[in-house]
């Protein structure tokens, strides 16, 4: 799994709860639950079911706690610009099947990609209510051997009504040489242990996402969201011997409640 942030392959899956009510004490609290289907790792032809718990607590001052994003602070500027800083815990990848976790028996001998604490810094511009354009950097401050990654994203609302929101999201993912090699490269020792041919990778664009998210609000407390995302591994990453399928799909539905 790409080490962008915790359950990153499911960012589109888990980050889709919508919150509209605010506690009198200044906190906006949303809980949710659902399920999704995702590849065992990016490049895998096998899929797994993933349960999706969700919690978001946001203060009026900009601080937040989110099960998909971590603990962070968002600062709004005039003209709809913003910056966002988050500390999160990125879940790595196993070289064998482990329940709901990222990993596959097809990777035996490749070793595990370690979990890591990650600093995520983003900046963007909001438009049309639910739309945004943004750039972000994911920098691990533990397990630095994993490497850094970056992304540029465009979210465009296709429909906004009093009860429904339909958006499309496109993302370009870029990895450092260390990151791309960690996720899709094969070292000499890994080649001997796994049987995959040795494969060296440099830095650059590694994947492109395209997704759709539909959210329906039953009332100001209850909502349901469904999301679908297609990811295509590109360039040399897509030619990696551990990649059995360049194009993979993520699907999820989550029901949420705002207090």
TrEMBL record:
Belongs to the MipA/OmpV family. Coiled coil: none annotated. One of its GO terms (cellular component) is cell outer membrane. Keywords: Cell outer membrane, Membrane, Signal. Pfam families: MipA. This is MipA/OmpV family protein. PANTHER family: MLTA-INTERACTING PROTEIN-RELATED. InterPro entries: MipA (IPR010583). The lineage of its organism: Bacteria, Pseudomonadati, Pseudomonadota, Betaproteobacteria, Burkholderiales. It is found in: Cell outer membrane.
């Amino acid at each position: 799994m790409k080490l962008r942030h915790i359950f990153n392959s499911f960012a589109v899956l888990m980050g889709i709860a919508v919150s509209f009510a605010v506690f009198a004490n200044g906190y906006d609290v949303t809980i949710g639950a659902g399920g999704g289907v995702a590849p065992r790792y990016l490049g895998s032809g096998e899929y797994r079911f993933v349960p999706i718990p969700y919690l978001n607590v946001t203060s009026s001052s900009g601080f937040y706690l989110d099960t998909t994003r971590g603990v962070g602070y968002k600062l709004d500027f005039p003209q709809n610009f913003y910056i966002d800083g988050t500390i999160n815990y990125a879940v790595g990848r196993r070289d064998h099947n482990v329940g709901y976790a990222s990993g596959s028996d097809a990777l035996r001998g490749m070793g595990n990609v370690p979990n890591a604490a990650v600093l995520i810094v983003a900046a963007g511009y909001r438009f049309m209510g639910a739309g945004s354009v943004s750039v972000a950097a994911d920098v691990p401050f533990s397990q630095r051997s994993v490497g850094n990654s970056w992304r540029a994203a465009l979210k465009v609302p296709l429909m906004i009504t009093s009860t429904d929101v339909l958006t499309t999201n496109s993302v370009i993912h870029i990895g450092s040489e260390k990151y791309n090699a960690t996720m899709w490269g094969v070292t000499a020792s890994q080649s001997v242990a796994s049987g995959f041919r040795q494969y060296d990778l440099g830095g650059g664009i590694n994947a492109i996402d395209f997704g759709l998210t539909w959210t329906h609000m039953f009332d100001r407390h209850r909502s349901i969201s469904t999301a679908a995302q297609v990811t295509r591994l590109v360039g040399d990453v897509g030619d990696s011997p551990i990649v059995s399928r360049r194009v993979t799909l993520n699907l999820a539905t989550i029901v949420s409640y705002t207090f």
